[in-house]
Amino acid sequence: MNYxxxxxxxxxxxxxxxxxxxxxxxxxxxxxxxxxxxxRLGRWLHSTNDLLAQHWPTRPRASTPEPLAAVIAETAAVVxxxxxxxxxxxxxxxxxxxxxxxxxxxxQLGVSRATVRRRLATV
Length: 123
Known about the structure:
The termini are far apart. The chain has helices spanning 6-55, 66-78, 89-97, 102-109, 113-121. It is elongated. By secondary structure, the protein is mostly helical. Helix 4 packs across helix 5. The protein folds into two domains: 1-57; 84-123. The longest helix is centred in the first third of the chain and has 50 residues, at 6-55.
């Protein structure tokens, strides 16, 4: 067999390196410039975003606007919260002791049968 000598291999490698070197340089330059442009663009976008946020805030102020505060005050005055349970256990037990059915107790107290059943289960 006819193997190439070291000098022949060295010559071929030098030719290949001279041929590919400009392309490698071009690719590396493109990568570095792309990174740099992306970095600069990102910095510009952040500074623009900060500038726009100063002039046009997207979040409302901490205080409640006047019309909304009036509506909240009016609604709070109208709504009255009753902290009494719908059907006190004592009422359910008293009616049950009289012999009324769960359905009749629910109808009389104006609650659901499930509520009556829960109240009876507490005892």
